[in-house]
Specification:
Length: 225
């Protein structure tokens, strides 16, 4: 895990960001032990911001802090993932309807640009980059709807879903189906078809959790079902 702190920002939030990214990318796999002293040395900080970062990540369900300072990356909690997914789907179905009615041309152009970027990343099999671009596609929708703080809430709750997605995305045909789903969302919004936009979002946000059993078979030690 390579990370250089920005001296103009507080250390703890940066440690949170770095550790969350490493957990979501599976660089820090479920079950791996996290040593505060080692992390402090790696980040070049005292143990206090590391402790604060781990507490924050434990609140998000991404790490488990046990007695005597033993800390582990959590396994992927499928019930928690389902709750986060339900929240996100409910929000985005309404956002899609709103944007179909109120969007402007700049927003549509931004979505098209992001979709083209995703297609390029998929062609290069850059799965981590592809997932980041996927998130950006959806973040743009929240921002355009005037709901950026809701996106922040969704991100904080989606750690388990994000890790499931990373395990699922290499499946044959998954990037192609994601691109097709995003194109359907974009087309419906651009056409100002609110019903089609909602339907496209509902279909899109059903894929990964519908494949939990398959993911569990391939990675039984990573999931709590």
């Amino acid at each position: 895990m390579n990370f250089t702190l920005d001296p103009t920002r507080h250390a703890a939030p940066q440690v949170v960001e770095a550790l969350r990214a490493a957990i979501i990318s599976m660089e820090l796999a479920p079950g791996i032990a996290l040593d505060r002293a080692e992390l402090a040395q790696q980040f070049g900080v005292s143990q206090t911001p590391v402790r604060d970062a781990l507490i924050r990540l434990s609140e998000e369900g991404l790490v488990i802090i046990r007695a005597q300072y033993t800390t582990q990356v959590s396994r992927i909690d499928v019930p928690a993932a389902r709750e986060a997914h339900y929240l996100r789907r409910s929000i985005e179905i309404e956002i899609a309807r709103q944007l179909a009615v109120t969007h402007d041309d700049t927003f549509i152009a931004d979505l098209r640009t992001q979709l083209e970027r995703q297609a390029d990343l998929a062609a290069r099999k850059d799965f981590i980059g592809f997932i980041a671009a996927d998130k950006e596609f959806h973040r743009l929708m929240y921002v355009a709807a005037g709901l950026p703080r809701l996106w922040a809430v969704v991100v904080r709750m989606s750690g388990h879903v994000d890790r499931l997605r990373l395990l699922h995305i290499p499946t044959v045909g998954k990037t192609e189906s994601t691109l097709a789903a995003h194109l359907a969302i974009l087309t419906a919004i651009a056409s100002r078809d609110a019903d089609a936009a909602q339907h496209a979002v509902r279909d899109h946000l059903s894929g990964t959790l519908a494949s939990v059993d398959e993911i569990h078979k391939r990675h039984p030690d990573f999931l709590i079902v």
